[in-house]
Amino acid sequence: MSLQHLIAPDAAPPPPTARYSHAVKAGPFLYVTGQLPVDPDDPQAPLPDGIAAQTHMSFRNLARIVDHADYVLADTVFARIYLTQFERDYPEMNRVYGEYFPDAQRLPGRTTVGVSALARDALVEIDLVLWKG
User: Rounded to 5 degrees, what are φ and ψ at 96?
Assistant: First the structure.
């Protein structure tokens, strides 16, 4: 099996101090690096206010990477979500998440964890594993 390391030109660029690909394709699997709510069109801009806006922005970044790799979000088999304010933000993040995975019969596996901090003081970071057979 060959590996393909991808950088999506229209996704938020990795910061100069970070060393990662946006995604790595391994056979039919696509492993997408955790995405913060950074505006891909203005990476230096302040992060959006609130968990709903930050979750949407994280998914915007994920969708650009997934699309670049010729997958769709519906190909997601597993999502990992990190929240800095778990108790406060989980319900609203979960509501927004449901907008991206609306089919209750085909939901990806998922882990959601509370963490003490994320880069740029983000409230959320999301990574995905996708499969296309």
Answer: -65, -45
User: Radius of gyration over alpha carbons of the chain, in Å?
Assistant: 14
Query: Per residue in 48-107, pLDDT tens?
Result: 999 999 999 999 999 999 999 999 999 999 999 999 999 999 999 999 999 999 999 999
What's the chain look like in SS3?
CCEEEECCCCCCCCCCCCCCCCEEEECCEEEEEEECCCCCCCCCCCCCCCHHHHHHHHHHHHHHHHHHCCCCHHHEEEEEEEECCHHHHHHHHHHHHHHHCCCCCCCCEEEEEECCCCHHHCCEEEEEEEECC
Handedness of CA 33, 114, 116, 118 (dihedral sign): positive
- Token pair belonging to 19: 């060393």
Stated pTM of the model: 0.95
68 and 8 in contact (C-beta within 8 Å)? yes
